[in-house]
Design goal:
By secondary structure, the protein is mainly β. The protein is built from no helices and four strands. It starts with 7 loop residues before the first strand and ends in an 18-residue tail after the last strand.
Length: about 90
């Protein structure tokens, strides 16, 4: 994926919350991504929303412990089934 010259990934945090305890936090926002579809060689653009949860580590750094992305782009339509009795070549 990182070798793909069309690869682009951008995040925009709309919300950042840190627990009063100071050991957990989350970011929520939107993302946009472009990459080359290996099957078609066409550039595919995607965008949607994300949430990432972070936990403060013993050394003071933050580590992502859970995340989820939800694409706003509908998946491609499935290919129509082959007609009965016809063989694929």
């Amino acid at each position: 994926m990182v070798a793909d010259p069309a690869m682009s990934l951008k995040f925009q945090a709309d919300r950042v919350e840190v627990a009063k305890s100071g050991d957990l936090a989350y970011t929520q926002g939107t993302y946009s991504m472009a990459m080359t579809d290996p099957a078609t060689k066409n550039v595919v653009n995607d965008h949607g929303s994300y949430v990432t949860v972070y936990k403060k580590q013993a050394d003071g750094s933050w580590k992502s412990v859970s995340d989820i992305v939800t694409s706003a782009v509908p998946p491609p339509a499935p290919a129509p089934p082959s007609a009965p009795g016809k063989k694929k070549r």
